[in-house]
Amino acid sequence: MTSFSLREIADFLAATLEGNAGLVITGIAGLVTAKNSDISFLANKAYHGQLQDSSAGAVILREQESQLYSGNKLIVADPYLSYARLTRLFDRSLAIEPGIHPTAVIDSTAKIGNQVGIGPHAVIGSGAVLGDGVIVGAGSVIGEGTNIGAYTRLAANVSIYHDVVIGEYCLFHSSCVIGADGFGFAPDRENGGWCKIHQLGGVIIGDRVEVGATTTIDRGALDDTLIDDGVIIDDQVHIAHNCRIGANTAIAANCGIAGSTKIGRNCTLAGAVGIVGHIEITDNVHITGMTMVSKSITEPGSYSSGTSAIGTREWRKNAVRFNQLNDLAQRLRKLESDAD
């Protein structure tokens, strides 16, 4: 069992400690469920009422709220950020030890760094390069000529296609696919059907990027698809060919980004956002859930589309009226013209 003294935790977080420095902490829990051996945190004033009744061994909170709690406490500027940092100490994710499993298939031309861990039935293609400390989970495949930076981790069954470049300290969750063909086809009017456009570009991913389970990032048609440093991508996201995603942008689950879209730095896309291709979104843009973005966004800020859920009966009435908007607008213009 992982355990730390309250003093060790305070030092790790650079927090001000008030209380029993020798108390042993073995886990992190919410205010309601925490035991005496757990540490908890208060990051939202909505949970003030839970504070005094909490059985937590210690609580992380702000200076201005410290008087609300008489138990052991760690005082910090940002309790939620401190909680996030603290989870690293208590992470129980199963880690692959350095070494190569006997069932792994590694091409003789691949270059493997020091302290690399390669799990059962993983496949490493010709000319691939794995930096120091890289972890490759069971059943994962790394294609020809792909370069993976130091201390990047692949969970089980990750597929990295050929000629992909990935930076350091990245994390790829199970069943994500990096470097699949973009959706490129030309209409073949002479013969009917479609003529495939072979995708000749690659994917370049920066440092400290996290990609969620079953997410797909397509390779470029001619130029590369680019994902900058610090980008975080949730599960079941699709990023099409030749997109460019700026540093520290966050993309939530079920978003779909069409080809050749450029998204700036420090943007956030909430769940199920859809973005058409060949547009640009500037830095520091927040797009709320289920928004459809159909044109470029040139000014920072928050953007939304669609309507919130209402009763079905009311929605049906509004849907009928929506179809009447153009007629109503024309009648209003006529009335305004007649009035003039």
Beta-strand portion reads: 25-35%
Give the mean pLDDT.
95
Contiguous runs where pLDDT drops below 50 for at least 5 residues: none
CATH topology of the largest domain: UDP N-Acetylglucosamine Acyltransferase, domain 1
Cα-based radius of gyration, to the nearest Å: 26 Å
Reported for the largest beta sheet, the result is: 11 strands, parallel
Query: Strand sequence of the main sheet, in spatial order?
Result: 8-11-14-17-20-25-28-31-34-37-39
The helix-and-strand class reads alpha/beta
Domain module count: 3
Shape type: flat
Distance between the termini: 81 Å
* Percent helix: 10-25%
| Name of the level-1 CATH class of the largest domain | Mainly Beta
Architecture of the largest domain, according to CATH? 3 Solenoid
Question: How many strand units?
Answer: 39
State the gist of this model.
The chain contains 5 helices and 39 strands. By secondary structure, the chain is an alpha/beta fold. It has an 11-stranded parallel beta sheet with strand order 8-11-14-17-20-25-28-31-34-37-39, with no helix packed on it. Strands 9-12-15-18-21-26-29-32-35-38 form a 10-stranded parallel beta sheet, with no helix packed on it.
Explained architecture:
The protein is α/β, with parallel strands linked by helices and 340 residues long. It folds into 3 domains: 4-90, MurE/MurF, N-terminal domain (Udp-n-acetylmuramoylalanyl-d-glutamate--2,6- Diaminopimelate Ligase, Chain: A, domain 1), CATH 3.40.1390.10; 99-303, Hexapeptide repeat proteins (UDP N-Acetylglucosamine Acyltransferase, domain 1), CATH 2.160.10; 313-340. Helices cover 15% and strands 28% of the residues. The protein is built from 5 helices and 39 strands. The longest helix is centred in the last third of the chain and has 15 residues, at 325-339. The chain is flat and about 80 Å long. The N and C termini lie far apart (81 Å). The model has no long low-confidence stretch (mean pLDDT 95).
